[in-house]
Amino acid sequence: MKRPRRVMFLAPRPYRRRRLRDAARLLPVFGAFLLVIPALWTAPGTGTRRLSGDVFYFFAVWVLLIGVAWAFARGLSRQEDDGGADEAEDGFPADPRQPGRGIGGSTGGGSTGAGSGGISGGGG
Amino acid sequence: MPFNLLVLVCLAYVIFLFTVAFWVERRARAGRLGWLRSPLVYTLSLSIYCTAWTFYGAVGYAARSGLEFVTIYLGPTLVFVGWWWVLRKLVRIGRLHRVTSIADLISSRYGKSNALGVIVTVMAVIAATPYIALQLQSVVLSFEAFAAATPPDSPTPGAGSTAIWLTAGLALFTILFGTRNLDAQEQHHGIVTAIAVEAVVKLIALLAVGIFVVWGLSGGLSGIVARIDASPIARWSLDPGRWAGLIFLAGAAVICLPRMFQVLVVENGDDIQLARASWAFPAYLMLMSLFIVPIAVTGLELMPASANPDMFVLTLPLAQDRGGLAMLAFLGGFSSATSMVIVEAIALATMVSNHIVMPLWLRLRPAAGLSGDLRGLVLNARRVSIGAVLAMGYGYYHVSGGSAALAAIGLIAFVGVAQFLPAMLGGIFWRGATRAGAALGLVLGFGIWVYALFLPSFGPDAVLSAQLMAEGPWGLSWLRPEALFGTSDMDPLIHALFWSLLANASAFFITSVLTFPGPVERLQGAAFVNVFDGQVGPQRWEGGAAEPEELLTMAQRILGDEDAQALFEAAARDQGKSRSILPDPTPAFLAALEERMAGAVGAATAHAMISKLVGRQTVTVEDLMTVAHETAQVLEYSAQLEAQRAELARSATALREANEKLTQISVQKDAFLSQISHELRTPMTSIRAFSEILSEGDLPPEMVARNGQIILDEAKRLTRLLDDLLDLSVLESGKVQLSVSLSNLREMIDRAILATEQVKPEKRFVFQRDLASENLFIRTDADRLTQVFINLIANARKYCDAEYPEIRITVRLKAARVRIDIADNGSGIPKAGQGLIFEKFSRLPGELRAKGAGLGLAICREIVANLGGSIAYLPGQGGAAFRIIVPLRIEGGTA
Amino acid sequence: MAPHVLLIEDEPHIAEAIIFLLRRDGWQVTHLALGAGAVDQARILAPVLVILDQMLPDISGLDILTGLRADPATAHLPVLMLTARGHPRDREAAVRAGADRFMAKPFANAEMMAAVRALCARAIQTDPRPGAA
Fold first, then answer.
1. What is the DSSP string of B3-40?
2. Most buried pick, B807, B836, B895, C25, via CB within 10 A?
3. Biggest distance spanned by C-alpha atoms of chain B
4. ∠ CA(B30), CA(B36), CA(B42), 5° rounding?
5. What's the mean pLDDT in B282-290?
6. B77 contacts in chain A (CB < 8 Å)
């Protein structure tokens, strides 16, 4: 079930965030593609292919993936900090309490009362 | 390198790990975790993915199959850089639903079905046992590698005794730090930190060996490049099917392996940890694999052809007489093996105790949910399970005897646990997934794994006969274990992976589509799939059916007194109740309680225990439909509006409570005058009547004496009453002069017990005290506080109706406040009376008139309030119980 | 046969005083410290007078009085009600429930005995049963 109200057009900042998430989602697909490419290469020993070349290729891809993931993770965690106002559809920084359940937090000091009657325990 | 030194270093290292774990546990208990919860520790703890199989085996793998070994690390790398897809959701669900294991996740998602929990647990144990055996073997092999390099005259232990000592040591460590307490969140900070330390050790060890090989043995970068291109493994060829299959398999394993699930989901603290791990863990894996190829090619070139490539990491430095480096490499391998075994044992033990032992026990003894020490039971079940899991690993190692079959078991175990993938991913992304589908898929996939991969891995004629392997059962060649449906050209591993997952996923999907899920299943499905939507879920429990006191008793047995009371108190406060620690059993509260208990004993067991008290869950499909409609409407409200409503509801409750109390008080105030008149007139009547009789004279002397005595007694009673009233009015006005001094709590309690000995002296009371915890110096008015103790203990002596009466006094110091609980084991105070007992002249309904005037508890309350503390009735303790909280140091006063 | 009085009073010292006074005057006294079974006792003993404390630990004296009045065998019994609560409301309630005489504690012994005698005399005059005198 989707939220009944959904924003059609976003301000530049949330828009940027949304695109960053798209990119983060695409990263593993891109990585998988790069890692499977060598299967299309000619068999080793037949031409100029060398094992050291393969090693360098895989480690280069690896470092690239780590680097991009690092940049993405920084961007995505920063959103978490300024969280609350983000009304995006998958609401990463949303209220950490379990929907429909009461007490959050390890000391049980959270708030109770989120029933279907709509009494929800305070804002996030 | 003397062997004894090796053993010594090994022991020192283990003691160091114990110390680290112990220190962290102590900090965790004190609530000072700080950087220990940092993303770095989390990332390092994930490194238990790299077991001894990776530490030693990767080099062997590279020596045999070229670059194929990197697939084992590339799969997890893709999963982690793609954390936004799966891991983020998995971890969020794990935190919100307090998931304790992968079996708990699947059981909870599919309607808290314990049958699924059992299936997953059994599968995980079967797949993990050989894997644990593999770790034991690697440590034994590394010991032997050292022993081979030692002069023959020095004593070395046999492989059998090494393995048995190792298993026993690991069991001890795991039981000590893995079952210290029944945590509401099932997190083990001590172990996680120890594992982070081990992660650093194994990384440094492997890097050190690699640097030595590249710059020490091969003359730098150019030398090693030349050596790589000249080595026999340069002729490896990339098999596209196996390549892609292994990347996929490793990616699946990193989230499905019980131990990975434990550190990744269960021990996770927040999303920041995961975000950091998304690149840091791949970086760790990359560093671990960086020098694998150089070590392999150098080993192949320098070591004799008979040398086991699996041990190159260790034997290369040994052969070059680098004892220190070899020692480091040994510790690296040792770390890899031990950390894997420890976490695996914890993860499996949690599953076994929550999904097999607890449900069995609750079924065998249905009344047990309400009595007996469940925490002790759960912890003991875990301890026994840890022992059993490790014993099985050792048994497997002992039977298979270090055969070559073990070496391949890593990947075989991967395929086994990959069977969880369809049920898990389907469960968190697809609301249509049903319990029947998940169960059928799991069983079918696992069956194929056992038949096509696990049993054949023992070799022909070991379990499956050679004839069956070659021709299939009953001569049906399309059923040959390694060539199902005639696919004889496939690699056996990929063959098993393909067929098992295909059957698993198809059965899961088709059955899910065809069956209809039950209401609980649908609720859980929605809660899991829409975990980020913050939706309001429907109520699961019918409120009001349960007695809060019974719930508290049960919760205390699972969560412990402290946590359970804190949980109930917080909930009561949120409901606007100030006088009682017992909240109303609203649906929301029941759901919260269930969730909290699920963190300790798993969703299925927690659910079963609550339904025992509340009755069956009352959700029906119709409810779901109406609620779904309401939910859509409710969501229209802004968050602020909802918050205001909650606030309103809270103040309404508080108002109602205040109003009720006011009404009661006005009735009481009215009764007060009449009461006081009664209390004064009664002794006066006796005094007047006997005085008149005496004044008439001509009585026998013994009558005169008796009448005089009665007059005296009644006069004393009158004085006592007036004293109490006066005392109370002074206390209530707040103008009381406290004489504050530093006094020992134990002495005060001693005095109180002594002073009350004359109350019902015929009753033999047993006092349960912990003198050590009472040995506290409190800055307070000692006489006043003692008076409170006297009143409470005297009450207990008067009213406790147990056959063997006991009074339990517990003292706790918490945040500069002293908490004193005084409880007896009688029948307690009925719920209706609990709210009023502290009022003046209050008497319980149906109570026989006591000697006192009903002012004792009212005086207690006023004294404690004057001392800056509070006193409350403590329900659910199996008798009448009172909790006094006073500050450790009272300010001001006349010292 | 000495006239019989049923005393229902929970305070032991007050009961002792009343019993002493009555016995000295030649009455026979049966004392109950609790309200339970008081109506049955009254039926069995058939006393000439019931002295009833208004506030008993188990049953209210008013309830016992209502019980006595509801039973034909005891409906006619004269009842002297004692109370330690001085509120006029208590008096009204007692009268409404059918008490013949109401006395607040503390009382003068002479006043008490006078009330007992008066009530008994009236009861013996009006007692319809044969042989009651």
1. HHHHHHHHHHHHHHHHHHHHHHHHHHHTT--GGGGSHH
2. B807
3. 134
4. 135
5. 94
6. 31, 62, 65-66
Q: Name the residue ranges covered by the structural domains of chain A.
A: 12-85, 98-124
Burial B297-330 (b: 16+ CB within 10 A, else e): bbbbebbeeebbbbbbbbbbbbbeebbebbbbbb
Side-chain half-sphere of B656: how many Cα atoms within 13 Å?
A: 9
Q: How far apart (Å, rounded) are the C-alpha atoms in residues B254 and B79? A: 8
Q: Are B710 and C16 in contact (CB under 8 A)?
A: yes
Q: What is the pLDDT of residue A86?
A: 40
Instruction: Please check whether residue C42 is in contact with residue C74, taking contact to mean a CB–CB distance below 8 angstroms.
Output: yes
**Chain B residue with Cα closest to A31:** B78
Helical (H) or strand (E) element with B711? helix B701-733
Residue C133 lies in a domain: no
pLDDT of residue A101: 35
Instruction: Round to whole Å and give the CA distance between B258 and B33.
Output: 25
Task: With beta carbons under 8 A apart, name residues in chain B contacting A79.
Answer: none
Domain range for C60: 4-126
Q: What is the pTM of this model?
A: 0.68
Partners of residue B689 in chain C, C-beta under 8 Å: 14, 17-18, 21, 106-107, 109
Q: SS in 3 state form for B33-65?
A: CHHHHCHHHHHHHHHHHCCHHHHCHHHHHHHHH
How many C-alpha atoms does A122 have within 13 Å on its Cβ side?
13
Instruction: Please list, residue by residue across B517-550, b when 16 or more beta carbons sit within 10 angstroms of its beta carbon and e when fewer do.
Output: bbbbbbbbbbbbbbbbbbbbbbbbbbeeebbbbb
Task: Find residues 1-40 of chain A whose CB sits inside 8 Å of chain B.
Answer: 1, 3-5, 21, 24-25, 27-29, 31-32, 35-36, 38-39
Q: What would you report as the CA-atom Rg of chain C, rounded to the nearest whole angstrom?
A: 14
Which chain C residues touch B684 with a CB distance below 8 Å?
105-106
CATH code, C54: 3.40.50.2300
Looking at the 3D structure of chain C, how many domains does it have? Answer: 1
What stretches of B679-833 adopt beta strand conformation (E)? 741-744, 766-769, 777-780, 806-814, 817-824
With a CB cutoff of 8 Å and minimum separation 6, the contacts of C80 are C49, C50, C51, C52, C99, C100, C101, C102, C103, C115, C116, C119
Closest CA in chain C for residue B670:
C87
Scan for tokens 């998995």, then name that residue: B90
Per-residue pLDDT reduced to its tens digit, C97-133: 888 888 888 888 888 889 888 888 876 666 544 444 3
**Which pair of tokens denotes residue B629?**
């409609």
Per the CB < 8 A criterion, the answer to whether C101 and C81 are in contact is yes
Domain assignment present for C17 = yes
Which residues between 79 and 118 in chain B have a beta carbon less than 8 angstroms from any beta carbon of chain A? 79-85, 88, 95-97
Q: Ramachandran region of residue A54, left (φ > 0), alpha (ψ -120 to 50) or beta?
A: alpha
Which ranges of chain A have pLDDT less than 70? Answer: 1-10, 41-49, 79-124
- Residue A85: the pLDDT is 36
Q: Is B754 exposed, middle or buried (0-12, 13-18, 19+ CB in 10 A)?
A: exposed
Answer yes or no: do B677 and C87 touch at CB < 8 A. Answer: yes
Nearest to B451 by CA among B425, B409, B479, B424: B479
What is the secondary structure of B839-887 as a DSSP string? STT---TTPPPPSS-S-HHHHHHHHHHHTT-EEEE--SSSS-EEEEEEE
Residue C131 in any domain: the answer is no
For C67, the token pair is 């019980």
Domains and CATH numbers, chain B: 3-401 (1.20.1730.10), 419-531 (no CATH), 549-636 (no CATH), 642-733 (1.10.287.130), 741-887 (3.30.565.10)
Asked if the structure places residue C52 within a domain, the reply is yes
- CB–CB of A77 and B271 under 8 A? yes
Q: What is the pLDDT of residues C27-37, one digit of tens each?
A: 889 888 888 88
